[in-house]
From TrEMBL:
Organism: Jimgerdemannia flammicorona
Chief localisation class: membrane
Protein name as it appears in the record: CNH domain-containing protein
Family: Belongs to the VAM6/VPS39 family.
Subcellular location: Endomembrane system
Taxonomy of the source species: Eukaryota, Fungi, Fungi incertae sedis, Mucoromycota, Mucoromycotina
Keywords: Membrane
Membrane topology: Peripheral membrane protein
C-alpha cells in the first residue's frame, strides 16, 4: 500500500513507511490492534482489515480514528470510495465531508486531530468557496486558539502559553483566564460551555446550527457504509453513528465511533488556580508577557516613526487629518495593551519573584500608576514605588514619599541620601521642585545637602541666582559654600555674586568679632584667634577677585577695625597713600607695606617706582601727628633705593639724617644708574650700526637701474608692464604695482 511518495510495509502488527529509496521516512510506524490482513489508502486515511474489525487511522498522526465492525471482511480496494468485501457481502465506505469531520473533532476536544486533518487536505475540499485558502487559515487559527484554551484549562500551562505566543494572541484574552489578583479590571465572568471552554465554535463551523437531523453530516464518524442490496446481514450491528442499509429492511444502525470510547464528552470544569498551580501558571505567563512587551514596544516605536514621517511629508489636509486620526486611534489601542501587559507583568513578578519588580520599573514602562501604586504600597515596596513615580515623571509624589520615609528612623529609604540622589537626577526644568524639597535636607544635613547643587554633573544646569536666593534664606554658611563653588570652581565673573561673597565673608567676620568680644569681656581675654580663618578668606578674596565693587564693601567696614581689609579696598580704588598709611601707622607692619609696593612693581615697574616714593613719603612726612620713621625709610632705601629717584629722596630726608645711613642707598642708586647708562650706550651703538647698514643698503638699491622694454611682462598677471606703475623686488623681479601685494601674500619666489 502506498500514499503519495511513501510506501507502507508491515510486519506482524506494525507498519512502517519507506521512501522511494527504501529508507524509513518516519521514526515510528503504525501499531495496529491486530495483524492487518488487507490495507488500503483513502486520502488522508489508511484503512486496514483486521480479524475482528476494520480500523481507520490518520496517516499523519497514526491515531485510531474509527473501528468498524464488519464480519468476515477479506478484500479492500484503494481510492476515494472504499469497498470492503467478504465471502457473501460488499460494503462501501463513504467519507463525510472534511468540514463536518473537523467540526466533530473540535466538539470532542480532539484539537490535534482536527489540526492534522486541516493540514493534510486541500482548502477547496474544506470550503468550496472563493478564498478557500484564507478560510482554511482562519479556521486553523481558531482551532489552535481553542486548543490553547483547552490546554490551559487542563493546567498544561507551558504548552498553552507557548501556543498563545505562537498565535500572537491578544494579551487581554490570555490575562482574562487568570484570577483577579492577576487579571484585575480586565477579568470577565466565565460562562463555560458544555466542554468546559469559553468559546463558541459554531461561529467558525462550515454549517449553520440548524442542520437536517437526517443529514449524514450529523454523524460522528468519517465513514458511512451501505450494505449490498442483495445480501442479508447475519446479525444486527451495534448501535452507533454509522448507518447500514439493506434492500429488505432499511433499519438504521450505528456501527462505531471514531473517538476513544473512554473519552469524556463533558469534562469536569477546571479547578480554580491556587497555590503551586497558580505559581506555575504565572511563571509561564511572565514568559508570554515578556515576549508581548517587546513586540508592543517595537510596534509603538514604528507607529511613532510613521506618524513623524507623515507629519513631515506634507499630505493634503483632508487626507492628512483622516490618516492622523486613524493612526492616533491605533496608537491609543496599542498603548492600552502595553499598559495592561506591563501592569500584569508587575503583578506576576510580585507574586513570584519580587526582585524583578525594580528592574522593570527602572526602565521605560507603561505600568498603570494607580493600580501599581496600590499594590506597591500594600507590599511596602517603597523603593520600587519611587522608581515608578520617577519613570512617569511624578516627581512631586516621589519626593513626598522620600521626605516622609527619610525623616523616619527605619527602612531602606531613611535619611537624606535617597532624596539627595533623586534631586541630583533632576534638571533645570524641575528647579522649583528641587528647591522645595531640598529645604528639609539642608536643615537636616547641610553638608550632604549641598551635593544637590554642587555635584559635578549638575554644574551648569541650575540658575545660580535662584539657588543662591534659596540658600541665603536657609543658611548664610550654605550661601558662602555655594558662592565659593560658583566663583572659584566654575569661574563665574558676575559682579553681583562677587559682591555677595565679599559681603557674606564680612558678615561672618563681624559676627565672630561680636561673639569673640562678648567672650573676651566675660573671661578677660584678648580677641579670640578663631576668627583668623574667616578673615584670611575675606582678605584673600579681596586681594584676588577683580569683579566686586570695592566702594560698596568699603562703606560697610567699621572705622575702628578691619584695617587690613580697608587697606586692600583703598588700594583697589587708587587710594594708595591711605592704604600704605594704614599698614604703617595702624597695623605697624612695615613688611606688609613694602610687600604692597613690591607687588605693584612686579606688575607695573613704572607705577611700582611711584609706590616706593609714596611709601617713603608716608614714612618721612606722615599726615597724622606720628613722628617721622627715619629708620624705616632708610631700610626701604637700602633695599629698593635703585628704584627711587635720588632727587626726590634728598628733598624729603630730614637735614639731621646721618650720611652713613644713606651709604647703602647711594651705592645701589649709583650702581643702577651706571648700569642703565652703560645699557643705553650699548643700545645706542647697536642702533647706530643698524642705521649705517640700512643706509648702505638704501644707497645700493638706489644705484640700481631697471630697464622697461615693450616686451617686459609682469610674472603675476602675464601682461606687459608698459607705462604702468611698477614695483621692483630685491631679486630684480619687476611687477605691476597692483600685483605686488598678491605676490607678497602668496610668497612666490620670482626670478
Amino acid at each position: 500500500m502506498h500514499g503519495g511518495s511513501d510506501r507502507n510495509l508491515h510486519a506482524a502488527d506494525v507498519s512502517i513507511f519507506l521512501g522511494l529509496d527504501g529508507t524509513p521516512t518516519r521514526k515510528v510506524g503504525i501499531e495496529w490492534t491486530g495483524i492487518p490482513e488487507e490495507m488500503g489508502y483513502s486520502y488522508p486515511y489508511v484503512v486496514a482489515i483486521l480479524p475482528r474489525h476494520v480500523e481507520v487511522r490518520n496517516i499523519q498522526t497514526q491515531t485510531l480514528v474509527q473501528q468498524i465492525e464488519l464480519p468476515s471482511a477479506r478484500l479492500l480496494n484503494q481510492g476515494k470510495l472504499l469497498y470492503i468485501a467478504s465471502a457473501t457481502q460488499i460494503w462501501r465506505l463513504t467519507p463525510y465531508s472534511f468540514a463536518v469531520q473537523v467540526d466533530q473533532l473540535v466538539e470532542k476536544n480532539e484539537f490535534e486531530e482536527a489540526i492534522s486533518l486541516l493540514q493534510q487536505i486541500e482548502p477547496i475540499l474544506l470550503e468550496n468557496k472563493p478564498h478557500a485558502t484564507t478560510l482554511q487559515e482562519e479556521k486553523m487559527r481558531t482551532i489552535r486558539d481553542l486548543h490553547a484554551h483547552y490546554l490551559f484549562q487542563r493546567n498544561e500551562f507551558d504548552a498553552a502559553l507557548a501556543l498563545f505566543q505562537e498565535l500572537d494572541t491578544d494579551p487581554i484574552e490570555v490575562i482574562q483566564m487568570y484570577p483577579p489578583a492577576i487579571s484585575g479590571r480586565v477579568l470577565k465572568p466565565s460562562t463555560p460551555s458544555e466542554d468546559g471552554l469559553n468559546h463558541n465554535y459554531s461561529d467558525y463551523a462550515s454549517d449553520g446550527p440548524d442542520r437536517d437531523p437526517d443529514d449524514d453530516r450529523n454523524n460522528s464518524n468519517p465513514w458511512s457504509t451501505i450494505v449490498n442490496p442483495w445480501s442479508t446481514p447475519a446479525t444486527e450491528p451495534r448501535r452507533d453513528s454509522l448507518t447500514i442499509t439493506t434492500s429488505t429492511n432499511r433499519v438504521p444502525s450505528v456501527l462505531s465511533t471514531w473517538f476513544n470510547p473512554q473519552h469524556d464528552p463533558q469534562p469536569t470544569p477546571p479547578r480554580e488556580l491556587t497555590g503551586q498551580v497558580l505559581e506555575e501558571a504565572i511563571n509561564y505567563l511572565i514568559r508570554f508577557l515578556t515576549d508581548r512587551r517587546g513586540k508592543t514596544a517595537k510596534l509603538l516605536y514604528q507607529q511613532q516613526q510613521q506618524q513623524q514621517a507623515a507629519q513631515s511629508s506634507g499630505r493634503a489636509l483632508g487626507a492628512k487629518a483622516s490618516k492622523e486620526k486613524d493612526e492616533r486611534e491605533k496608537m491609543d489601542r496599542v498603548a492600552e495593551v502595553a499598559k495592561l501587559v506591563d501592569t500584569v507583568l508587575l503583578k506576576a513578578y510580585m507574586m513570584t519573584n519580587d526582585a524583578l519588580v525594580g528592574p522593570l520599573l527602572r526602565v521605560q514602562n507603561s505600568c498603570d500608576v494607580e493600580e501599581c501604586e496600590v499594590l506597591l504600597l500594600e507590599k511596602k515596596k517603597y523603593k520600587e514605588l519611587v522608581d515608578l513615580y520617577n519613570g512617569k515623571g511624578l516627581h512631586r509624589k516621589s519626593l513626598e514619599l522620600l521626605s516622609k520615609l527619610g525623616q523616619s528612623n527605619e527602612g531602606p529609604l531613611r535619611g537624606c541620601m535617597p532624596t539627595i540622589m533623586y534631586l541630583q537626577r533632576l534638571g533645570q526644568e524641575h528647579l522649583d521642585i528641587i528647591l522645595e524639597y531640598s529645604e528639609w535636607v539642608l536643615r537636616t544635613a547641610p553638608e550632604e545637602g549641598m551635593k544637590i547643587f554642587i555635584k559635578d554633573a549638575m554644574d551648569d544646569q541650575f540658575s545660580h541666582a535662584r539657588v543662591l536666593a534659596h540658600l541665603e534664606a536657609t543658611s548664610a554658611d550654605l550661601s558662602i559654600i555655594y558662592l565659593e563653588h560658583v566663583i572659584l570652581e566654575l569661574g563665574d565673573e558676575t559682579t553681583e555674586f562677587h559682591n555677595k561673597l565679599a559681603g557674606a565673608y564680612l558678615d561672618k567676620v563681624l559676627q565672630e568679632m561680636m561673639e569673640g568680644s562678648e567672650g573676651a569681656e566675660g573671661e578677660g581675654n584678648d580677641f579670640p584667634s578663631a576668627i583668623s580663618e574667616s578673615r584670611s578668606r575675606l582678605i584673600h578674596f579681596l586681594n584676588e577677585s577683580l569683579h566686586y565693587w570695592p566702594a560698596k564693601i568699603l562703606a560697610r567696614l567699621q572705622l575702628d577695625g578691619l584695617f587690613e581689609e580697608r587697606a586692600v579696598l583703598l588700594s583697589r580704588i587708587g587710594q594708595h597713600e591711605q592704604a600704605l598709611a594704614i599698614y604703617v601707622f595702624r597695623l605697624r607692619n612695615y613688611r606688609m607695606a613694602e610687600e604692597y609696593c613690591n607687588r605693584i612693581f612686579r606688575d607695573d615697574p613704572d607705577n611700582g617706582r611711584r609706590m616706593y616714593l609714596i611709601l617713603l613719603r608716608v614714612y618721612l612726612k606722615p599726615s597724622t601727628k606720628e613722628p617721622p620713621l627715619v629708620d624705616a625709610a632708610l631700610e626701604l632705601l637700602s633695599r629698593h633705593g635703585a628704584h627711587i629717584d635720588a632727587e626726590e629722596v634728598l628733598a624729603m630726608l630730614p637735614v639731621t639724617t646721618r650720611m652713613d645711613g644713606l651709604f647703602p642707598f647711594f651705592e645701589k642708586y649709583v650702581r643702577e644708574t651706571n648700569k642703565n647708562r652703560n645699557m643705553n650706550l650699548v643700545v645706542k651703538n647697536l642702533l647706530e650700526a643698524e642705521r649705517l647698514q640700512v643706509q648702505e643698503q638704501w644707497v645700493y638699491y638706489r644705484s640700481r637701474a631697471v630697464k622697461i622694454t615693450e616686451d617686459r611682462m609682469c610674472p603675476q598677471c602675464n601682461r606687459r608692464i608698459g607705462n604702468s606703475v611698477f614695483a621692483v623686488f630685491p631679486t630684480g623681479a619687476v611687477v605691476h604695482y597692483s600685483c605686488k601685494e598678491k605676490i607678497e601674500k602668496t610668497q612666490w619666489k620670482l626670478t
